[in-house]
Amino acid sequence: MASKYLFIVSMDVEPDKEALFNEVYDEHIGFIRRVPGVRGVSRAKTAPAAVMIGGEKKPLIGEGEPTYTAIYELDSPDVLLSQAWQDAVEAGRWAAQVRPHTRNRRHVLRQVI
Questions:
Q1: What predicted TM-score, i.e. pTM, was given to this entire model?
Q2: Which residue blocks in the chain are alpha helix, DSSP H?
Q3: Residue pLDDT, tens place only, 19-69
Q4: CATH number of the domain that 30 lies in?
Q5: Residue ranges making up the domain that contains 14
Q6: For residue 11, is it within any domain?
Q7: How many domains does the chain have?
Q8: Fewer beta carbons within 10 angstroms: which end of the chain, N or C?
Q9: Is 30 within a domain?
Q10: What superkingdom heads the lineage (predicted)?
Q11: Helices and strands in the chain, H and E counts
């Protein structure tokens, strides 16, 4: 992985806004990809699964965990404070049409080691 940091954003969306959420989020990450210092963006949706640990089957989905996650590969934490980032996260339809319908939001920055 070329990036030094991962900014991980997870959330749920109101069920009746899910189609709009996915349509607009794809547009939204197009703005984010153009921010200097952003190396890549991936989106994911939680899938039901289990894993064997110590001979015991354990579910992977934790109660209360958000359904959707976006992973932004960054050069530096400073990217998140840049004017370009601020402009990108407010661009397009995301801020007005989708953000108000999201909940259970989580934001975390991880340094790649």
A1: 0.90
A2: 18-33, 83-90
A3: 999 999 999 999 999 999 999 999 999 988 899 999 999 988 777 899 999
A4: 3.30.70.100
A5: 5-46+62-111
A6: yes
A7: 1
A8: C
A9: yes
A10: Bacteria
A11: 2, 6
- The two structure tokens encoding residue 31: 């703005």
Q: Does residue 54 lie in a domain region?
A: no
Q: Are 61 and 49 in contact (CB under 8 A)?
A: yes
Start-to-end CA distance of the chain, whole Å, equals 10
Asked if residue 75 is part of any domain, the answer here is: yes
SS3 call for 108 = strand
Q: Is the dihedral of CA 68, 85, 35, 19 positive or negative?
A: positive
Tokens read off for 47: 């899938």
Q: Buried b vs exposed e over 28-47: b needs ≥16 C-beta within 10 Å?
A: bbebbeebebbeebeeeeee
Rg (C-alpha) for the chain, rounded Å, is 16
Ramachandran class of 104: left when φ > 0, alpha when ψ lies in -120 to 50, beta otherwise = left
Amino acid (1-letter code) at residue 33: R
Structure token digits, residue 34: 């153009």
Paired tokens of 43: 């989106």
Amino acid at 102: T
